[in-house]
Design a protein that fits this description.
- β4 and β5 form a beta hairpin.
- By secondary structure, the chain is α/β, with parallel strands linked by helices.
- The chain has a six-stranded mixed β-sheet with strand order 6-7-8-3-9-10, with helices on both faces. Strands 2-1-4-5 form a four-stranded antiparallel β-sheet, covered by helices on one side.
- It has two domains: about 210 residues, P-loop containing nucleotide triphosphate hydrolases (Rossmann fold), CATH 3.40.50.300; about 60 residues, Alpha-Beta Plaits, CATH 3.30.70.
- It binds adenosine-5'-triphosphate.
């Protein structure tokens, strides 16, 4: 059973359906990625799960209990790391942690002891006594993350924790998150970075315009594209539509078409060399055909018609 289950979650702001009938679950000990571009509805989803925002419809069920029927239980189980930093710049790193520990219901002694542990895990012990305003961007992100961990949540909600920091700081945070997972913490991880979703998450839900378009492991999502390889054909395709090629749509599914490139998957389990022959025999001046493994971006492209990297 899922540690977190979200069923038919819906939220509109005036005419904008920010989150539109979203359902998914996060299982104990897994990292579930919610992948989507800016404005897809990730933050609104997290806000509803953490009780900051009332859903218009749908339900959030934490460890088998609807959020609304026992918010205190839900809050004991969850830790929330908002995208906007929720730390006090004038306080030291340690004071921030202890403050959030007390907010989470720890005694003063427990908050102190846990703050020391979290500072060590975040490799911030040496800076513990400095005001947070003197920290680098990456260090602030780490303290922000640490503030949600004082009460040892079983489920951590992380809203784009690596936005706006340098690559080294990003790697540190990703390493830290892997460590949390290794100790059994389940994580809901929102991101618009494909590589993070690919490398970190056991399962990924793809969200766009408030709707969850598909979900699964990377392998399952790749299989939706019809196998484990894509063909990339380069040619002058400016005024050409594959619709005009006899039999093409029976044999290939178009993933992306630009003026220069056609990305397709083969329909059915066909021998790749036959597919290559078919593609080279098309009535266009083919400059190159290559094979590649489908990426999460290809899945996103097929689902939305847009490139998440743009
Ligand atoms: P980002 O990565 O940019 O934070 P996101 O996927 O988290 O994007 P949301 O912040 O959830 O997306 O926004 C989803 C949609 O809802 C957007 O169109 C946004 O403009 C709109 N929206 C979010 N909060 C509000 C609000 N309080 N009032 C009005 N519209 C809102």
């Amino acid at each position: 059973m899922g540690l977190l289950r979200v069923e038919g979650l819906f939220k509109a702001f005036a005419a904008i359906r920010a989150v539109d009938s979203v359902s998914f679950e996060v299982r104990p000990g897994e990292i579930y990625g919610l992948l989507g571009p800016n404005g897809a509805g990730k933050t609104t989803t997290i806000s509803m799960i953490s009780g900051l925002l009332e859903p218009d419809a749908g339900e959030v069920i934490v460890d088998g209990t609807p959020f609304g029927s026992d918010p205190q239980k839900a809050k004991r189980i969850m830790g929330v790391v908002p995208q906007e930093l929720a730390i006090y710049e004038e306080l030291t790193g340690r004071e921030n942690l202890e403050f959030w520990g007390r907010m989470a219901g720890l005694s003063s002694g427990d908050a102190k002891a846990r703050a020391s542990e979290v500072l060590a895990a975040l490799t911030l012990t040496e800076r513990a006594k400095d005001a947070v305003k003197t920290y680098s961007g990456g260090m602030k992100r780490r303290i922000n993350l640490g503030c949600a961990l004082l009460h040892r949540p079983k489920l951590l909600l992380l809203d784009e924790p690596t936005v706006g920091i340098d690559p080294q700081a990003r790697l540190n945070i990703l390493e830290f998150i892997r460590g949390l997972r290794a100790t059994g913490t389940a994580i809901l991880y929102t991101t618009h970075y494909l590589e993070e979703a690919e490398s970190l998450c056991r399962r990924v839900g793809i969200i766009d315009h408030g709707k969850l378009l598909a979900e699964g492991t990377l392998k399952e999502l790749q299989e939706r594209l019809g196998g484990d390889r894509l063909f990339v054909l380069e040619a002058d395709l400016k005024d050409i539509s594959p619709d005009s090629w006899a039999g093409f749509h029976q044999r290939f599914r178009v993933i992306q078409k630009t003026e220069r490139q056609l990305v397709v998957s083969a329909i059915g389990s066909r021998d790749p060399s036959d597919c290559l022959k078919d593609l080279l025999g098309l009535p266009v001046q083919v400059e190159n055909v290559t094979l590649k493994r489908p990426s999460l971006n290809d899945v996103f492209l097929q689902l939305t018609g847009r490139d998440l990297r743009e």
